Amino acid sequence: MTAGALASARALLQKARSCVVLTGAGMSAESGVATFRDAQTGVWSKFDPMQLASREGFEADPAFVWRWYSSRREKVAEVRPNAGHFALAGLERRFSPFAIVTQNVDGLHTRAGSAGVLELHGNLMRTKCFAECGVRIDKLAEVPAGEPPACPACGQWLRPDVVWFGEMLDPSVLDDAERLAARCDVMLVVGTSGMVYPAAGLPYLARRSGAKVIVVNPNPSDIDDCADVLVPDTAARTLPKLFEAT
Ligand code: OAD
User: Fold this and answer.
1) Angle 104-24-44 (CA atoms, 0-180°, nearest 5)?
2) Which residues pair with 161 in a beta bridge?
3) Spacing, Cα 39 to ligand 1 middle (Å)
4) What pLDDT digit, counting tens, does each position of 134-176 carry?
5) Which of 98, 144, 154, 209 could pair with 149 in a Cys bridge, judged by C-beta atoms 3.0 to 4.6 Å apart?
């Protein structure tokens, strides 16, 4: 089953000139970063997303939320990209255009060597002003002390530069992702449950626009109905094999 699916996926990639990859939390699972919706180990099985991933939750207890993101940052700093991230990083010259669009905030694609990754949900290592005064701090070492720290420009709280529930995605990042999705020959979807929009709409947009869609996920996902080929295996096992012969 997996061997046949792999062969079909490889054949689609061999024929393609352009490729967009959409990744979700499963992409980083084999690096040791927990997914969100796994029933036992998922982040949202242990924590309330409205407390930890909404403006209201942050306002209710900013110190608690800041500390929780600090512990996530520490965890992500300890882990390494996996074989799947490295396989994708080797692809930039094989396709034109080629793009990685990720829902992940862990920065592991960039650490694996991918350039120009479109981070739909922001980045855990960046910090911005809660009052949106325009301050954004890219380097953790430059974030002032405090739980949460005060914005150096306006004195409001600083917060992680990630997209919380109820917030808009950066329109320029989303526009770029949609433009690429609407023009690619193949969209490769890796490790997402397909439950969070607008990210989950990208494979459907690609498919409507004539692309072939490959889904890599060891479990069923909400995007399976959009897939031309389903590879029921993990990212780190599948991705290196997928590109061996392309
Ligand atoms: P989910 O936790 O919803 O889904 C993770 C998916 O990865 C599931 O479908 C798993 O079956 C699959 N998976 C698990 N291990 C895998 C592996 N080793 N290889 C491949 N796939 C594997 O995570 P997302 O779909 O990314 O939002 O969630 C979307 C958004 O919801 C996240 O970006 C986050 C969350 O709330 C924000 O942070 C804004």
Assistant:
1) 80
2) 123
3) 12
4) 999 999 999 999 999 999 999 999 999 999 999 999 999 999 9
5) 144
Q: How far is the CA of 192 from the centre of ligand 1 (A)?
A: 4
Residue 3: what residue type?
A: A
**Whether the Cβ atoms of residue 30 and residue 82 lie closer than 8 Å to each other:** yes
Which of ligand 1's atoms lies nearest the C-alpha of 192? 25
Residue 163's φ and ψ, nearest 5 degrees, are -85, 125
Q: Determine if the pTM surpasses 0.90.
A: yes
User: Of all protein residues, whose CA lies closest to atom 32 belonging to ligand 1?
Assistant: 103
- pLDDT tens digit sequence for 182-237: 999 999 999 999 999 999 999 999 999 999 999 999 999 999 999 999 999 999 99
- Say whether 121 is catalytic: yes
Residue 15 CA to ligand 1 centre (angstroms): 28
Contacts of 35 (CB under 8 A, 6+ apart): 24, 25, 26, 29, 41, 42, 43, 191
Q: What is the CA radius of gyration of the chain?
A: 18
Residues with CB under 6 A from ligand 1: 24-26, 29-30, 35-37, 42, 103, 105, 121, 162-163, 190-193, 195-196, 216-219, 221, 234-235
Q: Which two tokens stand for residue 113?
A: 């060597």
CA of 201 to the centre of ligand 1 (A): 15
Would you say how long the chain is, in residues? 246
CB atoms within 10 A of CB 111: 16
Interhelix angle 235-242/2-15, rounded to 10 degrees, is 50
Contact status, residue 159 vs residue 179, Cβ threshold 8 Å:
no
